[in-house]
Structure formats: structure tokens, C-alpha cells
Amino acid sequence: MSEINELIKKKLESFPSDVVTLAMEAIEKSEKGLPEASVTEYLENVVRKIIRNRRSEE
């Protein structure tokens, strides 16, 4: 699984930073073996944070 995650991380280099942040958080949390519901809830919070940061930059 680690090889796949490393490949994903490498492919993410061409994406916007917000996308990279969200994807990396998803990979890291899923690697820890957290239940799917916990990962989903955590990622919802990450998305909210990204949106707040974008709004504050405007």
C-alpha cells in the first residue's frame, strides 16, 4: 500500500495546493487505519478550513 501512496503523492505535485492538502490528509489518516467515518469527518473539517482560508484571503 505504501508504494501506491507514494505514487499518488508524486502525481499530486501538479495539482493546486488545496487539492494536495486534502489528498495528503486523506492518505495520512487512512494509513493510520482510522474507520472510514472518522476519516470522512476529519476531511470535512479540512475542507471547511480550506474554505475559510480562501475567504480570508479575498
Structural description of this entry:
The longest helix has 22 residues, at 36-57. The radius of gyration is 13 Å and the shape is flat. With 58 residues, it is an all-alpha fold. The protein has helices spanning 2-11, 17-31, 36-57. The protein starts with a helix and ends with a helix. The protein has one domain (3-57). Helix 2 (17-31) packs antiparallel against helix 3 (36-57).
Low-confidence blocks of residues:
none
Q: What amount of the residues lies in strands?
A: under 5%
From the N-terminal CA to the C-terminal CA, the straight-line distance is 39 Å
The shape, in one word, is flat
The DSSP helix count reads 3
Give a quick account of the main beta sheet: strands, pairing sense, barrel closure.
Answer: none
Rg computed from alpha carbons, rounded to a whole number of angstroms: 13 Å
Strand pairing plus helix content: what structural class?
mainly alpha
| Fraction of helical residues | over 70%
| Strand elements, count | 0
Which secondary structure elements does this structure contain, and how are they paired or packed?
Layout: H1 2-11, H2 17-31, H3 36-57
What's the short story on this structure?
With 58 residues, this protein is mainly alpha-helical.
Task: Give me some keywords for this one.
58 residues; 3 helices; mainly alpha
